[in-house]
Amino acid sequence: MREQSMMLKSVEKILNEILQPQLAQGWDNVGLLVGDRGDKVRRMLVCIDLTAAVLAEAKSHRAELILVYHPPIFEPLKRICAEGQEIIFQAIRSKIAIYAIHTALDVLSGGTSDVLADLVDMAERKPIEIVSSPGGKSKLVVFVPYEAKALEKVSLAIFQAGGGQIGEYSCCSFLTAGHGTFKGSMKTHPAVGKAGQFESVEEMRMEVVVDNEKLPEVVRAMKAVHPYEEPAYDIYPLVNEAGENPGIGRIGQLPKTMDLKTIAAMIKKRTGLKFLQVADCGKKKLQRIAVGPGSCGKMLEQLAGKIDLFITGEIRHHTALAACRDGISIICLGHGNSERLALKPLRKILMDKLPEVEVVISTRDSDPLSIL
Question: Are the C-beta atoms of residues 338 and 112 closer than 8 Å to each other?
């Protein structure tokens, strides 16, 4: 029986549609990293880390493509030699393409964040940090003094930078009058009122819709002409057509209150992991919960007072101490372990969207840390 295959450029196109690499964090390096788009792909190996063992496994399966979670090429490379970049060199030599997914998979519905949330049957879930997709829109809200010249300058700057465009209509905005209050320190030079005094001023709330690609430039233009030293403004990502926004991490509720040991036991049973790292804040009843794959310690800063438990891959010592002081217990699965759980659900999606390509999950891929 003749093996089926697809051109790499066709596989890449479908992977881009499924995984949406444009949603990855700006510092990340995802998408097709190595490969000849003119080559054929019959078999794909899926893993978290591309190690020498995983590359050998890909060769044994005669895989032409490795779908890897952590990008093996992260910083710019000046040279690719057998010494120093052996794995990348050998992959190229063996005509094995490499496609990285990383934080793109973290934000997608059904990706690593949702798989972690599923471990504890999280209800009423939503992203912890919304990701503004390049194809999406946001609403910029800025507060301007109730003075015609100031409003005109700010509006013109926003419109000229690309804000306020809705379909074939331009210069679209909504204005609401109100009062703003502030008290600047003696080091300030307020445009209205005096330093060190409490002030109440008439302001206009200006709302405009902005394409996410243009948002940074629109904000810069607004700040450049705004009369305030510290302009007050908000950015609200708008819900996409599917009725949801992509984002990293998930926050929600457990179906019922549980203690830490019960939750840890449930996670062990559902993952097959023998060991977990736990930081116990002392609360007996836990229900408000958040999850973040890999290393998401920075998220805890914005979760203080909002959750009872945080489930992640790994956490720093002092971050764990601070979380416990804030009344947040922590469960760590291990960095790679918290991400590897998403590979089986991903394989099902890939098999459905790429029926001509055999998709194999690596058995040689494992967390580099173990307990003796």
Answer: yes
| CATH class of the domain at 137-237 | alpha beta
Judged against a pLDDT cut of 60, whether residue 243 lies above it is answered with: no
pLDDT at 3: 67
The predicted structure's pLDDT at residue 239: 61
Q: How large is the C-alpha radius of gyration of the chain? A: 25
pLDDT band at 132 (very low <50, low <70, confident <90, very high): low
pTM recorded for the entire structure: 0.73
Domain covering 6-101+342-361 in this structure, CATH number: 3.40.1390.30
- Structural tokens at position 13: 């196109």
Domain ranges of the chain: 6-101+342-361, 112-131+246-338, 137-237
pLDDT at 352 over 90: yes
Q: How many other C-beta atoms can be found within 10 angstroms of the C-beta atom of residue 179?
A: 9
What backbone phi and psi angles, to 5 degrees, belong to 200?
-130, 115
Domains 6-101+342-361 and 112-131+246-338 agree in fold: yes
154 confidence band (pLDDT: 50, 70, 90): very high
DSSP assignment of 66-117 equals: EEESS-S--SPPS---TTTSHHHHHHHHTT-EEEE-HHHHHHSTTSHHHHHH
- 3-class state of residue 335 by DSSP: helix
CATH number of this structure's domain 112-131+246-338: 3.40.1390.30
